[in-house]
Amino acid sequence: QVQLVESGGGLVRPGGSLRLSCVASGSIFRTADMGWYRQAPGKQRELVASITSGGRPHYADSVKGRFTISRDNAKNTVYLQMNSLEPEDTAVYSCHTAGLTGGFRDFDSWGQGTQVTVSS
Predict the structure, then answer these.
(1) Are 81 and 63 in contact (CB under 8 A)?
(2) What φ, ψ does residue 12 adopt, rounded to 5°?
(3) Could you point out which of 28, 44, 81, 94 has its C-alpha 20 to 30 Å from the C-alpha of 37?
């Protein structure tokens, strides 16, 4: 079983920065895209950013130029650097990935989420 654990959330003032990390643990042979999603109260979950195994990123229009996604394949870790944060970025941020376990079984895993609050 593959587990994802996020860290790095918290309370920050508008214009501030946070860096989220998500580590995948367990028997992992290969992961495909890794992504960060967020869900604000009363809203649907939305994709914030994703990155392919080869390092190609994709961003939601609302975060382009402010957020940067990266990954360390050797550590099965994905990062989200968030700069120029706005109150509208307040949400629970969760990471997701899928791939093959060491036993060559498909997996599809979500983290438990980390709260990001942007407020003065």
Answers:
(1) no
(2) -140, 150
(3) 28
Residue 103 is predicted with a pLDDT of 85
Q: Count the Cβ atoms, other than its own, within 10 Å of residue 98.
A: 16
6 C-beta neighbours (distance < 10 Å), count: 22
Residue 30 has pLDDT above 90, yes or no: no
Beta bridge partners of 31: 99
Report DSSP state, residue 60: -
Quote the longest CA-to-CA distance of the chain: 48
**Cβ–Cβ < 8 Å for 116, 9:** yes
| Per-residue model confidence (pLDDT) at position 49 | 98
* Neighbouring residues of 29: CB distance < 8 A, sequence distance ≥ 6: 99, 100, 101, 102, 104
For residue 30, what are the β-bridge partners?
A: 100
Q: What is the pLDDT of residue 36?
A: 98
Cα 2 versus chain centre, distance: 16
